[in-house]
Design a protein that fits this description.
heterodimer; A: about 425 residues; mainly alpha; two-stranded antiparallel sheet; 2 strands; B: mainly alpha; Serine Threonine Protein Phosphatase 5, Tetratricopeptide repeat; 10 helices
Chain lengths: ~425, ~230
């Protein structure tokens, strides 16, 4: 599970990898207070600054297209992106043998695309989530679904953009915070915990911060639905941040009445039991999330590191799908080259030696080297890989966005390999 | 009648017999490795990728041959019209440049269409072709490095070549050892030994092919300049 092995080598990281990046160049990363270290307040207890202009849901709807949310998510209120732009649909087609390509190519791609073959639908977000949480998550996505390989990418949204998108997805204003929601009056937390253990919730969900929920038989569902449900099941720790009591109760009573194609089965619970489970999810005492340490910086290798090795282990395995050259590959070169997901075209081609050397287009429209060192002497390419770690542990990041976008950070060993290759003069 | 039946049976058994005697599996040490019974002809994309590899490995003539086999009229290709053709044009032009103008249709064993390419005319053609690619792909250091390299082979192109290659080197945007070799030569010719050495060092760090970084470069004489075909 990636959240527990942040430095583990992930097998395939196709393409999106984004995260907010952040440490100001020249300033060491300073971990922010861990929001989970204290009891997380209900979402409406952390309102946005009152002086902010009212969000504009119409603009939010447009932004959903600008940031191409429909390349991964269904239920955006816009038509799905064309198949050649839709990461999830395209990957799903390959996995299901519906993609038109030579059998040998399909066989080669299959193991590499299965992770991005599903993404949660945005349908009925209003009935499930709070606007405050959606706003916050858009700005600083975190690892919400332990069994889903990819992460929500950190898109180049401003706070105003995030508010507008959230207002579009969640038109209802969040209710005022209540220390003890009326909907939960009389609920039995102990019973709620017991129900979680016996109704099969633990077969898909983890609930970090409380004693592990044992896996028990889930409600009847077919294998495909179970696999999908397991993949998309969020860590229940975040329920209290994401949902109100009323929304949790409605969801537990009948998930399909909220989202028609959800993989979450209807749990066999009475009304009183629903309340007990909701109360446990929303108010059980949570242990602080374990702090995520700064990644180890391994020393530069003394043995020779060639481009071939770095290409095989990093560039071609992780970066290439989003940063390639349109004339040399099927597609448009990916959002990291020709733009997309709200990003400007950066012309960065990480698919071959010359392409990497040719750098990227900076904000002034000029070419700049990915090997240029920042004032800490760290090449930009390496900085981007380190920034991804900073993002995941909630540290401040600088102007360089963390990479790989939407995927787990590279391992310390992989970063060491890249850093060594750069330090050795980038031998072919 | 019996003989006819016998022949018919024999004919019917031929495919089965062939299937038994000609297996698509190669057996080795009790293990089987599936082999393709019919070798696949490389697709044009694969051919051009192979041509690029040959070029990178210093096999200029092989690169040109691979291009001409797929794009016999590469000389008149329009840069940017077709991505694969543009790649082919780049490979052929660089094969000409790196062979100092000696690679052409004739040396590659293809019909020349009656055109005799002198080395200088050939180099002029290559420079013009890379310029056209550069125009279609502005702000691409890879093409600019190719152009700088090509221009360095012509006496009248050296100044422009120096400007291009110095600029790319200063910004650390050059991934071509050949371009660094060209820069080293230009700097050396200007008496900048330290600059030449620095360029050679970068060239050697990124070159896989021996001899690229310290070439005995011959600059084409400005004698006969044939018109572009």
């Amino acid at each position: 599970m990636r959240s527990r092995r942040p430095l583990a080598v992930t097998f395939v990281r196709g393409a999106w990898g984004l995260t907010l990046a952040a440490v100001l160049a020249g300033c060491p990363s300073k971990p922010k207070p861990d929001p989970a270290a204290k009891e997380a307040p209900p979402p409406s207890a952390t309102p946005l600054a009152p002086a902010e202009a009212a969000p504009d849901p119409a603009r939010g709807k447009e932004l959903v297209l600008t940031f191409q949310c429909n390349r991964c998510h269904d239920g955006t209120g816009h038509p799905a992106a064309a198949d050649n732009k839709h990461c999830v649909h395209c990957h799903k087609k390959i996995v299901d043998d519906r993609f038109e390509a030579p059998a040998a190519s399909i066989a080669r791609w299959k193991p590499r695309v299965k992770e991005l073959a599903d993404a949660p639908s945005l349908e009925a977000t209003n009935k499930r989530l709070t606007r405050t949480w959606v706003t916050r998550y858009l700005l600083q996505p975190s690892d919400l679904r332990p069994h889903l390989h990819q992460f929500m990418p950190r898109l180049p949204l401003t706070p105003s953009d995030a508010r507008d998108v959230a207002a579009y997805l969640v038109p209802d204003v969040d209710p005022p915070a209540a220390a003890a929601p009326a909907e939960l009056a009389g609920a039995d937390l102990g019973k709620g915990r017991q129900l979680l253990e016996t109704k099969g919730c633990g077969s898909c969900h983890v609930f970090t911060g409380v004693a592990a929920i044992p896996s028990s038989a889930p409600p009847p569902m077919d294998g495909k639905q179970f696999a999908r449900g397991h993949t998309l099941a969020p860590d229940l720790r975040f329920v209290r941040e994401r949902m109100t009591a009323a929304k949790v109760i409605a969801w537990l009573e009948d998930p399909k009445a909220v989202v028609n194609d959800t993989a979450m089965p209807k749990p066999a619970l009475s009304k009183a039991e629903v309340k007990d489970v909701a109360a446990y999810l929303l108010t059980a005492e949570l242990a602080a999330a374990p702090p995520r340490d700064e990644p180890a910086r391994l020393p530069v290798l003394t043995r020779k590191v060639t481009f071939k090795e770095v290409d095989e282990k990093v560039f071609h395995r992780t970066c290439w799908h989003c940063h390639s050259e349109p004339d040399y590959a099927i597609g448009d070169g990916g959002p990291g080259n020709s733009g997309g997901l709200g990003f400007k075209p950066r012309g960065l081609n990480l698919s071959d030696y010359n392409g990497i050397a040719a750098g990227y287009v900076d904000d002034k429209g000029e070419r700049a080297s990915v090997f240029a060192k920042d004032d800490q002497g760290v090449p930009r390419l390496v900085r981007a890989l380190l920034a991804r770690h900073d993002e995941e542990r909630g540290a401040e990041t600088g102007p360089v966005r963390g990479m790989p976008l939407g995927y787990a950070p590279l391992s310390a060993e992989e970063i060491q390999l890249v850093e060594s290759w750069v330090a050795q003069g980038r031998p072919r | 009648m019996k003989i006819v039946k016998l022949v018919a049976v024999a004919v019917a058994l031929v495919p089965a017999a062939l299937a038994i005697t000609y297996s698509t599996d190669a057996n080795a040490c009790g293990m089987s490795i599936r082999m393709d019974s019919t070798p696949q002809k490389p697709t044009p994309v694969q051919s051009i990728a192979n041509a690029e590899k040959a070029l990178e490995n210093g096999q200029n003539l092989a690169a040109a041959k691979a291009v001409l086999a797929n794009f016999p009229k590469v000389r008149v290709a329009t840069a940017g019209a077709n991505p694969l053709e543009t790649r082919a044009l780049r490979v052929f032009a660089l094969a000409v440049v790196r062979s100092n103008g000696s690679v052409n249709e004739k040396t590659a064993g293809f019909p020349s269409g009656g055109n005799e390419w002198t080395p200088t005319a050939n180099l002029e053609w290559a420079v013009q072709s890379i310029r056209e690619i550069d125009a279609k792909r502005p702000n691409d250091p890879t093409v600019q490095a190719d152009l700088g390299e090509a221009l360095s082979k012509l006496p009248h192109g050296r100044k422009e070549s120096m400007t291009i290659l110095q600029g790319l080197a200063q910004k650390d945007l050059m991934g071509s050892p050949h371009a660094y070799a060209a820069l080293a030569k230009l700097r050396s010719d200007q008496g900048d030994a330290a600059g030449a050495q620095a360029a050679i060092k970068r060239c050697e760090e990124m070159s896989k092919t021996p001899g690229v970084c310290r070439p005995a470069t011959k600059v084409a004489s400005p004698a006969t300049v044939a018109a572009k075909a």
